[in-house]
Specification:
The chain is an alpha/beta fold. The chain has a single domain, classed as 4-Layer Sandwich (Purple Acid Phosphatase, chain A, domain 2). 19% of the residues lie in helices and 30% in strands. It has helices at residues 3-9, 47-53, 62-77, 100-110, 204-207; strands at 14-17, 20-24, 30-32, 37-40, 81-84, 114-118, 133-135, 137-140, 143-146, 156-159, 164-170, 173-182, 186-188, 199-200, 215-219, 224-226. Strands 8, 9, 10, 11, 12, 13, 14, 15 and 16 form a nine-stranded mixed sheet that branches. Helix 3 runs parallel beside helix 4 (100-110). The longest helix is centred in the first third of the chain and has 16 residues, at 62-77. It is globular, with a radius of gyration of 17 Å. It starts with a helix and ends in a 9-residue tail after the last strand.
């Protein structure tokens, strides 16, 4: 997909970080045409089955739903590389619970492209078990892709972990949407997983990472929407 075409379609979906342009996609993925890389974060596959083991009844369809959304996003962009920014699985036992059909689908998505799993705080120890490359972080052209945001980081950073979302007032009441939160040096990805949930962008854990303020792109069904930070309501 041509980046210039995306620019024409939706200027406010473009995020510049470390001198590189990225497209913030309404799926929650981040696309870099320059490197043909698709970045997703916090898939939390098998969160439903983890909850069931603790006695919480949740529909056991989150993995299939998340992989279906990922398949559609991959089909739209055709990336040469996919980077999953940690917490791709909800816990270390998720690979033992995932359905065979879902593993087959995941293998199909990986086929023919590079795939990098960044280690998260939920899914350590997947190297050598799950196909693909594995790393604690990826540093490329001065941009660090990592799961947990680094306090006092140098250079540009793309991170996950915090699952940012925004709460805004509309004519019909409050609306809560997952969101990209960023400034010129750091971007926090929204969670991609169907059951991942979210943390309000006004929470101190997020605010503390953006001392000079931040910008917000909230996920809509077909596009992202720039939301003035002053319109983002606390919980």
């Amino acid at each position: 997909m041509n980046l210039a075409r995306r620019l024409e379609e939706q200027d406010d979906a473009i995020v510049t970080l470390g001198g590189r342009a990225f497209v913030a996609d309404p799926s929650g993925a981040l696309w870099c045409e320059q490197t043909s890389t698709l970045v997703v974060s916090d898939l939390h596959l098998e969160k439903g089955s983890a909850a069931a083991r603790r006695g919480t009844l949740m529909p056991p369809y989150d993995t299939a739903q998340t992989l279906d959304a990922l398949a559609k996003t991959i089909a739209r962009f055709g990336p040469r590389r996919v980077v999953s920014l940690g917490d791709s699985f909800h816990d270390d036992g998720a690979l033992g619970r995932i359905a065979e059909r879902d593993m087959t689908m995941l293998a199909g998505l990986q086929r023919g492209r590079d795939w990098l799993w960044i280690s998260g705080n939920h899914d350590e120890g997947l190297s050598g078990v799950l196909p693909g490359d594995h790393a604690d972080a990826l540093v490329e052209d001065g941009i660090c892709l990592v799961h947990v945001p680094r306090v006092g980081q140098g250079g540009a950073e793309i991170a996950g972990h915090l699952h940012p979302c925004v709460k805004i007032q509309t004519r019909v009441g409050n609306l809560r949407r997952r969101a990209f939160v960023f400034d010129g040096a750091r971007l926090i990805m929204p969670a991609f997983g169907a059951y991942a949930g979210g943390l309000n962008a006004r929470d101190s854990a997020i605010l503390s990472l953006f001392a000079r303020g931040f910008s917000v792109l909230a996920l809509g069904r077909e596009r992202v929407f720039a939301i003035p930070p002053g319109q983002c309501r606390p919980d």
